[in-house]
Structures are given as structure tokens and as C-alpha cells.
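User: I'll paste a sequence; please echo it back and then give the predicted structure.

Assistant: Echoing your sequence first, then the prediction.
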Amino acid sequence: MIPYDGTAAAPNISAGRVSPAFPSRRAGAPLLSLRFSLALQLVVAAGLGVATAAVHTTLAPWLGAWQTLPVTLAFVATGGLAAAAWRRRQPAFLEIGPDFLAAYSRDGACLAAGRIAGASQWGAWLLALVVEQGARRTTILVAADAVPADIFRTLAVRARSAAGR
């Protein structure tokens, strides 16, 4: 039996995660920090507002305006909680390489890693990048106000070239 000296080995809590001090997994790959996207949050809030108005106007003729209010408020609360959970799951860092893209959360957990698929969509202010690794596909939304303009153009070009494959 080994005598206990009062010290213990710390558990490896970062197993499967990238160290926050050095989040890049590949040497030489640039790591980009994503900023908070006000435009994307406003779009989510506007969508929740439209859906709430639809719920209220649908139920009000049958239940009455005042009886519909608790259902409408419950819908807003549920939608707000879902939007907050979605926001927490969004990537905080992107690692961009010549043949891959990786997305990491604030705590360093890898959310998606692989190559950009041909199903990616691009626009003037929003990119929907589909990252595929084997049979698994993950969609990452990148707003134009979350990254510098040159990085946004680079990602848009990569999405377009992936669509040509």
C-alpha cells in the first residue's frame, strides 16, 4: 500500500478541451476571436416578437385578449430562454486553416471541426458555414459585425469555393 502524503493528483478536467491559453490545435493556424453580434441578436429578438404576436393574434379570437395573455407571456419566456441557450452555444473562437475550420466555445471546448461543406450559404452580412467531419455536420452562423471585414470576406470565399465542389 502506498502511503498518503496529503497531496493528490488533480483530475484532468480539460480532457477533450483545448487549453484557453493556447486554444489552437494546429500549429500556424490563425485563431480568431468572435465579437458579440448585435445584428444577429436583434434578428433573433425580432423573430421572437413576430412569433409572440402570431400566438397572441391566433388565440385572442377564441379565448379573449386577457385570457390569452398568460399563454402569450409563457411563450415569450420559453422563447427567451431558448434564445439565451442558443446564444451560449455559439462559438467564441474560430480557427481557420487552408483545409479546415474549427469552432471553439469560451471555455475551450471544440464545437465543430472539419472542412467547410458545399451546403454553406453566404450573404452580405451573414454566413451560414456548414462544417462537416465525416457524417456529422454542424452549422455555424458568422455575422459580418462579429469579425473583421477581411476575415468575413475570406470565410465567404471559402464558402463559395466549397459550394463549387
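The radius of gyration is 22 Å. The longest helix spans residues 38-63.
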